[in-house]
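Encode chain A's predicted structure.
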Amino acid sequence: MHPIWTDDDLTGKASEELAVGPAPMTTNTTLNRNLSLPLITLYGLGNILGAGVYVLIGKVAGEAGYFAPLSFLLASFIAGLTAFSFAELASRYPVSAGEAVYVEEGFGFKRLSLTVGLLVVLTGIVSAATITKGFVGYLDVFIEFPDTAVIICLLTLLGFTAVWGILESVTVAALFTLLEVGGLVLILVVTAPALQQLPQLQLDPTNGSFAGSWNGIVGGAFLAFYAYIGFEDMVNVAEEVRNPRRNLPIAILIALGIASVMYILVTINSLLILTPQELGQSEAPLAAIFQTATGKSPWLISVISLFAVVNGALIQIIMASRVCYGLAIKNWLPAFLGSVNKITQTPINATMAITVSIIGGALWLPIETLAKTTTYLLLIIFILVNTALVKIKRRDENIDGIFQVNILVPIFASIMCFAFLLFQSGSLIMKMWTF
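Encoded structure for chain A:
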């Protein structure tokens, strides 16, 4: 695995106007290239972090017990392989509706590409709904409002923020991301004294559901995998990134690397403060960890958690709306979804349609169902995208001026994703059969 850049890429002068597929429809307005490398990195990191530790760490611990760090490690390995594939594909085809374009380039089937694009949109909707449910749990630490009112008001506000403008909305997301990282650092600091207990920690196989068993670790990893989604969303704002052939691959790998390290560290420290059962039963796990570790009110970490959750939902709205836009300008979805506002230079119709859909999902489905559904859909998408890269590389192995990986990376990534999906499906069938 090694990056290959042209001289223009290294000097930041590469063409940013790469177009793939049929010419876009005339809307008199195009998306604006305002996202620098730091901004696109924070965009991806904020999406990954907000969806993971702040919402699902308790659920992963409830599934895997004291082996939850291994679940996060396994999930990061599987996600990391696919991240390298996305890094190359983003460098080859830096356009909106990235996954659909990748599959089209690899397989050449319009219907399959459209299906993948719609699956990506669906994962964004389901993921944002999951995150919004997590917001309600942390808000209850301060004050209780009817869940329905909170969900509708929050998502409406985020929808308008996404419409405001890509630079403005991603800048807001970047600020939220810095708060997220600060919150995790705070948790690591207040739980640091508990690290002296680590050598004495006994991994009792009776702790937690399936804890200490391979089924428990993989089951936890299936939930934890949801915590790593976000890197694939970065490719769908490619048309708004400066020098995307260079900056997107770098941003994808940096964001996923930082998230992986923080997840594993926070999970280890958390299990030294609360038992897996206590974590699994908490709707605001980091608030519970902070309160137990310090004996103080968890208001600060709860506020940070609220921002983290909001950030994840905002980024999903941006991502899904850009996929709809990308599919529409390829004439695969109704034309009105590809319309870009002349003032904000954002796809307003697509953004509003996505926001309404997320509200529906958040109101009617429980958080674990939403998270597992997202993971199933993403694994299917990842298998197709990795396979598409294999076909592309076999057809044209040596391309100058782009980030490239060895062909074994997408092959192994496809196998791992398929095995992961198969194993979890088998476990689900066994549970239903036992029941």
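The two ends are 46 Å apart (CA to CA).
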